[in-house]
Amino acid sequence: MPEVLILTGPPGSGKSTVARALAERYDRVAHVEASVLRDFLAPTGRGPSEARERLRLLGVRNACAVARNFLAERIAVIIDDIVVSKDDLELYVDELKAVGAPIHYVRLLPSLEVCRQRDRGRPEWRMAPERVEKVWRDFAEAKDVPGATIDSSGQTPYETADRLQSLTTSGASIVWKPTR
Questions:
Q1: What distance in Å separates the CA atoms of residue 10 and residue 133, rounded to the nearest whole number?
Q2: Closest-CA residue to 15 (of 27, 3, 33, 28)
Q3: Pairing of the two strands 103-108 and 4-8
Q4: Number of folded domains that form the chain
């Protein structure tokens, strides 16, 4: 049975780059970027904070719907999103567990300075430095979330993918699995 990896971290942590480095190693893996799904909505439709929360939840549901479609075809899935809290993770688990695939959760949490530096180096999607810091601090303070954490500060994307692969193959990052 293919599995699901929820790969998360603050902006600049390397989620998309590491997801691609990991996916290169396998024949049947889909990389689902939740932010891309959220970008389908025109910027004028983003509105006030309650609308942004609905958009965030819609992004989770859409990422899970795409993941379920891949899983139905026996294709493993890496979901790349900012999933900070235990409650945020539960949204994903609740949407995915009916498929019966094990779900992994791995946080990439390099140092704040590394996240800032990587975010500044992006040609696009650059976030305000205060936003990068806020989300990084949210991750650093989230202590009750199961799964695994990788400090990728001094690692290349391929070294981080090696560590990630070790965590998933050993089962150390599983947050939900079907009972048989």
A1: 8
A2: 33
A3: parallel
A4: 1
pTM beyond 0.85, yes or no: yes
Q: How many residues does the chain have?
A: 180
In terms of residue numbers, what domain contains 101?
A: 4-176
CA angle 135, 138, 142 (to 5 degrees): 145
Question: What is the number of other CB atoms lying within 10 angstroms of the CB of residue 90?
Answer: 14
CATH, residue 40: 3.40.50.300
In this structure, what token pair is assigned to residue 11?
């902006």
Tell me how far apart the alpha carbons of residues 2 and 161 are, in angstroms, rounded to a whole number.
18
pLDDT tens-digit profile of 92-123?
999 999 999 999 999 999 999 999 999 988 87
pLDDT tens-digit map of 49-90: 677 788 888 899 999 999 999 999 999 999 999 999 999 999
pLDDT score for 10: 97
Percent of the chain with pLDDT over 70: 94
> Could you tell me which residues come within 8 angstroms of residue 25 by beta carbon, excluding any fewer than 6 positions away?
161, 165
| Angstrom distance (rounded) from CA 106 to CA 148 | 5
